[in-house]
Amino acid sequence: GRVSLALSPALTAGLRQLGQRHGATLFMTLLAGWSSLLSRFSGQDDVVIGTPVANRPRSELESLIGFFVNTLALRIRPQGGLSVAALLEQVKAVMLAAHAHQDLPFEQVVEALQPPRSLGHSPIFQVMLALNNTPGGGEFSLPELSLEPLQASHTTAQFDLSLALVEADGGLVGSLEYASDLFERATIERMAGHLQVLLEGMVADDQQAVAELPLLSCEQRRQVLESFNDTAAAYPADKLIHQLFEEQAAQQPDALAVVDETGSLSYGELNTRANRLAHYLIGLGIQPDDRVAICAQRSLEMVVGLLGILKAGGAYVPLDPGYPSERLRYMLEDSTPVAVLVQAALQECLPAVNVQQVVLDSVDLSSGTGGLPCGNPDLDALGLTSRMPAYVMYTSGSSGVPKGVLIEHRSVLRLVINNPYARITTEDCVAHGANTAFDASTWEIWSALLNGAKLLVVSQATLLNPARLNHVLIEGGVTALWLTAGLFNEYVDVLAAAFSKLRYLLVGGDVLDPVSVAKVLSRAHRPRHLINGYGPTETTTFASTYEIHALSDNSRSIPIGRPIGNTRIYLLDAHGQPVPIGVSGEIHIGGAGVARGYLNLPELTAERFLEDPFSAEPAARMYRSGDLGRWLADGNIEYLGRNDDQVKLRGFRIELGEIESKLSECPGVREAVVLVREHLPGDKRLVAYLTAQEGVELSATQLREQLSQGLAEYMIPSAFVTLARFPLTPNGKLDRRALPAPEDDAYASRDYEAPAGEVEHALAQIWQALLGLERVGRHDHFFELGGHSLLAVQLVSRLRQRFEVEVALRDVFAEPTLQGLARQVANARLSAQTPLTLVDRDLPLPLSWAQQRLWFLDQLDRAAGAAYHIPAGLRLRGRLDRDALQATLDRIVARHETLRTHFALHEGQAIQVIAPATQGFALVTHDLRPLDGAAQHETQHEAVERLAGEEALAPFDLSRGPLIRGRLVQLSEMEHILLVTQHHIVSDGWSTGVLLHEIGTLYRAFSQGLADPLPALAFQYVDYAAWQRQW
C-alpha cells in the first residue's frame, strides 16, 4: 500500500535551515526525524534504516542503465535524552562514515554479519528512507508534446515501511509505502501525520529532547487523554462498603444474602451477625485503620468475618489457608494485624506468630446469648471515612516476596455501584468461587451484597469438579459468574448449560483464548453479556472491560476494552508521553480505583504510584502497571503482554507475546506460552508450551516451518512442548513455574539417518556436546536443534581445533545441516580480489552481487516478483510521432546490453546472457478511442487503470527476458499514455533518469530525421558486474 505525504515549503525551508545550523544536509535532518519517529513507535532506541545510494563513483558508469544502486544500513540511536541538535550530530557522523564505504555491496555486508534470515523480511533492516535527488540527465522534454508523469499505484512493497520524498515547488512530496499484510492504511495515514508534527517540533526547538518531541496534534492528544477517558459516573464516593450493605439490609431484611453448602443467611441475619462480630472486635481494642487478618474457607462465616471487620473500622487481610506456612508468616508479620479471624479447622494452618486469634466458630454470633449488641456500630463515633483502607490484598512480587496492596472503601464502591459494564440488581445471583485472597473476590462479594443480590458461595471442591460446578450454578440460579481465563478455557464445553443461564459472564486474570470465546458465541443459548475484564489488584479488580459480541475469523486477540466508570487509562512511552493510536505503550491507570499504595514499601509505592499529570483533580495519582497495550481506533485497548515479557536473548530484544500470537495462528494450536529457559549455564533458549485442539497432534518441525514464514530466526523457539493442559495456580492463573523442561523430542529434529564417514561422525559429536543432545542425524539442522549465533561461533572454533581448517561463520549459516557442513569443512577455501577488467563476452558472464540477491529471491518466490518491478508512466499531450518513439525505444535497447539480458544456469551458477542488439523494444499498443464519451461498461479512466495495473504486475521471466517492456495507450489523436516497466535486476532509480534523458534526446533527433546523437558507451553493466564479483 501507499499513502501520499507532502511537507509544505515553509516546513521544508525550516528543516533545511535546521540542518544548515548543524552542518547537516536536508537528508540528514529527515533521517533524524524519521529515526526518532520509528524509535517512538517501536519503543526501541536503536534503529537501523536502509537508504539507497547511486553507487556510480566512476564517470564512465553515469550513462549506463543497470542495477548499480547500493543500500547503506544506517544505525541510529535516538535515545530519548538526546537533544535534537545532538541527534543531528550523531546522524551526520553515521552518514559520513557510511558514505566512506558506500562501494561495499550490501550483499557482502549481509554475508559478513550473517543475520537471521527469513523470507518474511529483508535482512538487517526493514525500513527505508529515500530522498530522490538522482539526476535525470538534464531537462526532459519531447518536441510538440506536454508531459505529465503518472503516479504508480500498482506496486508491491519491498520493505515493511519505506519513506520516499522528492523536492517539488519548494516543498517535499512523496509517499509512505507499507506492507499491507503488516499495516492497515489508517495506521500509516496517522503515521504520516505524526511525522509532520514531529518535524515541526524539531524545527521549533532544536534543544528539545527527542523523547519530548510532539507526535500528536492537539485534537489527537485530546482524544487519547480525554475522549477515551470520558468515564465519569455517579457513585456514592463518600460512603463506606458496610454502610451501603446496611442500607440493603434495612430495605430487604428477609431477602437471601448469602448461600453456601451448609445453609443461608438473609440480609437481616447477615447484618446482625456481622454487627455482633464488629462489637466483639471493638471490645478487643480494634481501632479505625487497624488491620485484621482472616483465614477461612469460602463460607457463610467468611462473609460474616469480612463485614464484621469493616464494621469495626478495620481493614481485612485475607489469608489463603492453602498458602505455604512461610508465605503466611511473612504476610502476618508484614501486615501486623491486631487479630486474626480463623475457622477452627484451619488453626493448624497458621504459623506461630504473636497475634491474637479469634476462632470464628466459637464466637456466638447467631443469637443474643453472648451479650453482644446487634445494632450497627456508630460510624460517626468511629470516625470512619471512605478514604480509609477496606482491605490489604497480597500479590506476588518480582523479588519473590509478596507485597500488600491497600485498597480504600471508595475504590470498591466505584467498582460495583452504578458502573455501566455490569449492572447487578436484586434479581441477580452472583457466584463466589474466587479465592478470597484474590481480588476477583472483591467484585463477586460486594457486587452482590451492595446491590441487594444473592451471593452463592462455591467451594473449592465444587470449583475443581466441572460437572458438579455446572449443576450447582444451574440449581443455584446463578446469573453472574466470574472465571479466570484458564478455567474458562478448561470449562468452556462442560459449563455450556450453566453459561446459557447467565446475564453476565466475566472472564479475566489472563489472556483470553479466541477459540474458546468463539465456541460460546456460536451457541444459540449463551450468556447475555460476555465480558473480558482487565485490571491489576492495584486498581481494584477491573480497570477496563470489553463486551464481546462477535469475533472476526482471524481474531488473534480480544481487546481488554475501555476504562470502566470513574477510571482513566493512559498509554505512555518510556518517557511518560502519550503514544498515538496503534502504538504500544505502558498502561497507566488513574481514577478512583487506584490503591493507596503498597504496605511498608514506600520506595516501591513511589516508583509505581505516580502523580497523574493528565487529570484535573488535585493530588490525582496513577498506577504504572508494567502491562503493554495499544489504543485501537474505536477507543478500545488491545493488550500486548507484560513489559517484563520483553526479553533480550543473544543481543536481540524479543516480545514473547508476539511469538505466542504467531503460535496461536498455527493450525491445531489452542493455547501457547513462550518462556526463556537456561538449557545449560549461560545458554538461554526460547521454549514454547502448547495445548492442541482436539484430535490434533502437533509437530515441532511443522511448527518451526510455519513460524519461519513470519518470524525472524532468533524468535523461533528451540523447543516445542505439547501438554494436555496448562498447569494453573490456586487462583486459576497459568502457573509458569510448573511448566516442565523440554525433553529431546521437543526439538525440531528430522528423520534420523546416522552420520556417514569420519567427518560427519566427528561433527555429530561436536554438535551433541554443544547442543546437549544424545543423538544427531546427518539431515538435522543446527539451528532447528537449538543452535544460535553464539553457539555457531563456538562451533567454528571447535571445527578449527578438530579439523585444522578455516571455516567461516557464514559457512555454518549457508550449510546448517550436518551433511552440508561436513561438505563445507572439506571444501573450505579463501577468495581473492582482482582488478577491474573488461570481460570477454564469450565467457560465462557473472551476476553482480545485487543481481545475485534478486535472482535468488526470484527462484524462491516468483509470485513476489512484482515487488522488484519499476513501473513508470507518462501522459503525452500533443502530436505523437509513433515511428520516432518506436525507433527511440529500439535504439535504447540496442545501446544498453542489460536491457536485452536474461539469466540462465551454467554449471550450477546463474549467469547473464545477452541477446542480439536487433532484439528491439516490444511496445504493445491499445486504442481506447472507442471508449471516449460513450456509455460503455468501462470508461477510459477505468481501462487505463486496469491496463496500468496489468502492466505493472505482470511477471517477468528472468530466464527468458526481455526484462523491459511497455504499452502505448491511445486516448485520442492528441493524447497518449506511455507505460514502461523494468525489472529491478537490470535497472534502478538512477537508470530511470538515464532512460528518460535518452528517450528525450533520441526522440527529438529521430522525429526530425537526424541520426543518433548519443556518444558510444565505453562500458556495459556486465563489465561492472564481473569487476565487482572479483573483490
TrEMBL record:
<feature type="domain" description="Carrier">
    <location>
        <begin position="754"/>
        <end position="829"/>
    </location>
</feature>
<dbReference type="InterPro" id="IPR000873">
    <property type="entry name" value="AMP-dep_synth/lig_dom"/>
</dbReference>
<keyword id="KW-0597">Phosphoprotein</keyword>
<dbReference type="GO" id="GO:0003824">
    <property type="term" value="F:catalytic activity"/>
</dbReference>
<dbReference type="Pfam" id="PF00550">
    <property type="entry name" value="PP-binding"/>
</dbReference>
<dbReference type="Pfam" id="PF00668">
    <property type="entry name" value="Condensation"/>
</dbReference>
<dbReference type="InterPro" id="IPR010071">
    <property type="entry name" value="AA_adenyl_dom"/>
</dbReference>
<dbReference type="InterPro" id="IPR001242">
    <property type="entry name" value="Condensation_dom"/>
</dbReference>
<dbReference type="InterPro" id="IPR020845">
    <property type="entry name" value="AMP-binding_CS"/>
</dbReference>
<keyword id="KW-0596">Phosphopantetheine</keyword>
<dbReference type="InterPro" id="IPR036736">
    <property type="entry name" value="ACP-like_sf"/>
</dbReference>
<dbReference type="GO" id="GO:0005829">
    <property type="term" value="C:cytosol"/>
</dbReference>
<dbReference type="InterPro" id="IPR025110">
    <property type="entry name" value="AMP-bd_C"/>
</dbReference>
<dbReference type="GO" id="GO:0044550">
    <property type="term" value="P:secondary metabolite biosynthetic process"/>
</dbReference>
<dbReference type="GO" id="GO:0072330">
    <property type="term" value="P:monocarboxylic acid biosynthetic process"/>
</dbReference>
<dbReference type="InterPro" id="IPR023213">
    <property type="entry name" value="CAT-like_dom_sf"/>
</dbReference>
<dbReference type="InterPro" id="IPR045851">
    <property type="entry name" value="AMP-bd_C_sf"/>
</dbReference>
<dbReference type="Pfam" id="PF00501">
    <property type="entry name" value="AMP-binding"/>
</dbReference>
<dbReference type="InterPro" id="IPR009081">
    <property type="entry name" value="PP-bd_ACP"/>
</dbReference>
<protein>
    <submittedName>
        <fullName>Syringopeptin synthetase C</fullName>
    </submittedName>
</protein>
<dbReference type="GO" id="GO:0043041">
    <property type="term" value="P:amino acid activation for nonribosomal peptide biosynthetic process"/>
</dbReference>
<dbReference type="InterPro" id="IPR020806">
    <property type="entry name" value="PKS_PP-bd"/>
</dbReference>
<dbReference type="Pfam" id="PF13193">
    <property type="entry name" value="AMP-binding_C"/>
</dbReference>
<dbReference type="GO" id="GO:0031177">
    <property type="term" value="F:phosphopantetheine binding"/>
</dbReference>
<dbReference type="InterPro" id="IPR006162">
    <property type="entry name" value="Ppantetheine_attach_site"/>
</dbReference>
